[in-house]
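Bench log, entry 3. Co-assembly request; chain sequences pasted below exactly as received.
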Amino acid sequence: MSAEPLLEVDDLSVRFDTDEGPVQAVDRVSFALAPGEVLGIVGESGCGKSVTCMSLVRLLPETAKVSGSVRFGGADLLALGPRRLRRVRGREISYIFQEPMTSLNPVFTVGDQIGEVVRRHLDLSRRDARRRAVELLQLVRIPAPQRRVDEYPHQLSGGMRQRVMIAMALACDPKVLIADEPTTALDVTIQAGILDLMREVREKLGTAIVLVTHNLGVVADIADRVIVMYAGRKVEEAPAAELFAAPQHPYTVGLLGAIPRPGERRERLEEIPGRVPASARPLEHCVFADRCRYADETTRTQVPDLRPVRPGHLVACFHPEAERAA
Amino acid sequence: MSIVAQDVERPRVADSRRRLRVLGKRFLRRPMAVGGLLVVLAFVVVAIFAPLLAPFGVGHTDFNAVLAKPSSKHLLGTDDLGRDELSRLIWGTRASMQVGVLATLLAMVVAVPIGMLAGYYRGWVDHVIARLTDVLLAFPFLILAVGLAAILGPSLLNVTLALGIGSIPGFIRIARGETLALREADYVPAAVLNGANDATIIFRHILPNMTNTLIVQATVTIPGAILGEAILSFLNLGPQPPAVSWGTMLQEAEPYLTQAQRLAVYPGVAIILAVLAFNVLGDGLRDVLDPRTTR
Amino acid sequence: MGGFLIRKAGAALVVLVLSSIVVFLGVRAIPGNPAIALGAENRDPAVIAAVKAKYDLDKPLPVQYGHWIWLALQGDLGVDQRDLGVGRTIAQRLPISLELALLSMLVAVVVGIPAGVIAAVRRGRPSDYAATGVALVGLSVPHFWLGLMVIVWFAVDLHWLPAGGYTTLHHPLANLQHMVLPAVVIGTGLAAVLMRQMRSSILDSLGADYVRTARAKGLSEWSVICKHAFRNSLITVTTVMGLQLGGLISGIVTIEVIFGIPGFGALTIDAVNQRDYTLLQGVVLVVAAGYVIVNLLVDVVYSFLNPRIRAI
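Structure output for the full assembly:
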């Protein structure tokens, strides 16, 4: 890992005040992203991974109370004025969202929506913006970009729309690309294409990628490092290869058990019993205690801190695999 | 579709009672809507108990007090024929509420079955009904009501009929749309598997599920009819003297606008208050009952 | 888009034919003897027979209808009680109402759309409550009552503007002086409807994924709201404006009567009150045709605003 991280998240917490009381969606999460690195964030739906990413450039609704810090380019994004923040959004850090169907505006052409980014940040003329849009469509391998550029989102397939989203995100050569479940809404065959494209982007443009997904298979495919989140907290972090070879947190072990591996014969997928708890007040026990098969007295009365089991491998568990085996 | 028929049952009584309580709670959390409901109820009470509440009879005239200012005898003063304004306002409440409610009921009774037929059977039935609705919709509400009132002759009953007929297309559209959506709901195929016939499905499964929408539409239609009555009466197509409604009061007040503005203010304020109350109530009910608008 | 509009136009044509039949039969359903009414209440059998012959009333209904429509298609709507051409009368009166309609719409759009956008953007703050509250009251005030009050306040008490009447567009200033109050009165109610619709529609759009995308692109709040959210809201609002046409017409009819503007609305009411059958029949036919055509135009505008429809 390089010494100087590109993006440094420290103690990030997000709370929503709802009618049913406050909900702690993200609880003191810290991580760093190196230039050109692909960081996977995994967890079940509702674990706070999307909220974490959206809070980085403050895309959450006003009801969200965000605390902590997000250092990027010498500034704290959470404390930045709106004008300077907008210069980061879309130019330095850009996003790909889960739903390509609804994330594009139905009433503007694809070219319009891509061109808008470069016109805004790079001050290109209308004509140059269009040229750039065609170029970008080509980059994301959309056939007949000259024609597609004037089409509306509803004229494109789901996979194509996601490619358009990627083109839009890459328009200003951002340093960080945040992809929030970019393949979840797509067919399996199309997913592979999108992942290939993202890998290519990282190699060609050197863009660092934060990839949020509930699908460990996707992470195994392209991530360098992985963070596992559970109920708003980071429960494990490790280099991808190590995480898959020697997972430490019982939750990670459970998640890995839930992905089918080719060549492996099993009667049925392993399920982790129970559900992600609704996060509300400060915890007095391990978040995973209710679903953990190794839960004991300590687990139920104390909150485990993140600690290294090996260099670069953190886990928040009283009974990580490595120690239990010993 | 893999639905096991027994799985999908109609909500039981206990369920619907609990649902009602939840809805009630949500409604009570909206002070505006509660206020609207109270005002509406107040008008209804005045309308029902008009004979007890009005100090004077409908046609009572007092020629010693013509265009009199408010006094202890005539709390709101009198009009050009010496009729007590407060009494007229109270009797007028009765007429106006009656028009609003009856016209809406009439429209509902006629339109809902038609709309449900169109939505349930679709095909040519739907086409024919859609075209006929379009024909009714080809006439602006007021022109239609004016025309009908002219054909039927000026009276409170005929105004009610005219406004009721004018409100039919709106209800047809809503009933049709709801039926179209509801017949796709899971419990319809389930009911079919259980051997229910069309009538059972329409009346036991679809109709109860669109009551919410119908109630909301009614809270829009009633004030529309109240306004419509006022306009028709103002154009001299409404009830004839000695019958009183808010609209006839306004119509009779017009020549005296410069001398006794209050004659126009009272019924005007009554109309605004009633329509406003219904609108606020309707907004509140929509928020509470319509799941699509709850956020 | 062609297919969509052709289908719409076809449906509109069917509706027009059917509604002309409704107009024809409806006018004949008005109680009283048309021949007597048209013959200026002259009950001499010879006169009545002459009137019947003149107005085709001695022929069977289908023949009467066919004759009427055939001439109407050529622009001839017959003559009224006073032997004036109905078509000519309508042609004189209609522009006055159209002017009033346009001015009212202008008031409604200028007030209602910005108010709705502002209320949505400032949701839950005092300015939102104020705008929403005013709109709610505006929605509940009958046009004609507001008209009466406005006449008393501005014309009779303050002498600021004329209490009624009309001056042609040859004298633009005088014309405007006469039109301001009526247009504001009608526009107020429409503005209220428009404001509420705009507000809820912008709120919907602001919650949409594409608005989040627009923000993630680093666009300013101004272009997020005024470009991305607004364009989508315009689609729903156009539809609602189309539906409000009925309200506009009802406002025009009553307000013309109150302000003594010799427009199309006042003509309609005169025709009803005088039992002038040919005039009424012509007037209502024109209203229905105009209404259907404007609704068709709304569909055209809608399809231009909405690329999903345009593609069909």
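The longest helix of chain A spans residues 188-205. The radius of gyration of chain A is 21 Å.
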